[in-house]
Amino acid sequence: GEQAVLARAVVERWYTAPGVRRVAVSERGVSGTLFLPPGSGRFPAVLDMWGGGGGLVEYRAALLASHGFVSFSLKYFPRNVSSDDDDVHLSYFETAFKILQEHHLVAGERVAVLGLSFGASLCLSMAVYSEEVQPKCCVCISGSHALPLKTSLLAVLEHLNKNVHKARIDEKNRVIWRDLLLPIPTDPDMKIDVGRIKCPLLVIYGTDDLNWPAA
């Protein structure tokens, strides 16, 4: 028969530790949220970029700040992906990096970039194509090197739209996007030249990822 429960406990995870400050950022054309650890610094810092789902996701940045990093969760996806007025260029991410780097609580020589999904492609693009951004390290989670941001975000999205017919729906009515990047292009201009990255690079991927062919 069923065994009796001997003990039970409810555990709640807090992403924002006591003393962490949340600061909304809207300056120099850049939007996002800054999380500051308690103390006088100077702290290492992380520019935190999420994926193509858009919006502003803060819990990972709050968790990083809870462990002693100044973290900047960056909002970058345009409101209208077909409007040139809302297009985002590489300079947007360079400015965000500088805002973080120049903060008085940040050790400017210890700023990393962290990206998930499409944000990982942004990390790689910044490390390769930007002459102004020199991250201490790059952490890329389930992204791809086949989405270079050389000019603008709209240019990348237009390329993806050409392959949108490859999207599939599974038996639970979930959209599977991973085929949009397959086969991986053979044209070098369609891939980020990761051999030019000079800082330490951590790449994390899952073979079951259904959004990008991360492996």
What sort of overall outline do the alpha carbons produce when their principal axes are compared? globular
Q: What's the gyration radius in Å?
A: 19 Å
User: Unreliable runs, pLDDT <50, ≥5 residues?
Assistant: none
Which percent band covers the strand fraction?
15-25%
- Alpha-carbon distance between the two ends: 45 Å
Structural class call reads alpha/beta
Strand order of the largest sheet: 1-2-4-3-5-6-9
Largest sheet: 7 strands, mixed
From the structure provided, what is the oligomeric state, counting identical versus distinct chains? single chain
How much helix, percentage-wise, in residues? 10-25%
The mean pLDDT is 90
Number of helices: 4
H/E topology pattern = EEEHEHEHEHEEE
What's the count of strands? 9
Any key phrases for this structure?
single chain, 215 residues, alpha/beta, 4 helices
How would you describe the overall organization of this protein?
Helix content is 19%, strand content 23%. The model has no long low-confidence stretch (mean pLDDT 90). The protein is globular. It has a seven-stranded mixed β-sheet with strand order 1-2-4-3-5-6-9, sandwiched between helices. It is of the alpha/beta class and 215 residues long.
